[in-house]
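[User] At your convenience, examine this fold.
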Amino acid sequence: MYKNYKNLVLATSLFALIVVALGAYTRLSDAGLGCPDWPGCYGFLTVPKHEAEIAHAIQSYPDMIFETAKAWKEMIHRYFAGTLGVLILVLFILAFVKRQYPTTPVKLPMLLLLLVIFQAALGMWTVTMNLQPLIVMGHLLGGFSILALLTLLYLRLTSQPITGGGRRCKTPL
């Protein structure tokens, strides 16, 4: 389980890097409001593609210009971010189940889970508050924090325990 868990943490870390890059791409391509609502897109789970769906989207959000390409950029970022959230939830559940083992870090996966929930709220506020700079900055910092904590978790799982004076740390973070 330990080796598989370590590999899952590494894969999740790399996936988080992709999510951060997708978020930057979404922002830099001016697609941050490609979908004006959250978690869907113009009231649908995917980007509207049929004539009736597009007409409904335009009628529901008359102040917005419907652009399929921008909407897809935004939704792809959301799908990847949602998948990252599920991966972090799995990391926490696995750590919680194996918490009786002294080498299993539980606090860091729990912190990651709380942070990814807050990050989802920031993602929602980014859209619903029309890209307020403070919210956008917080969302970016949240993404980098998740990436950093996943990297820290991986390093903690791969490095040898530090010993000093014949004692070992009993409860890793």
In short: The beta strands are 163-164, 167-168.
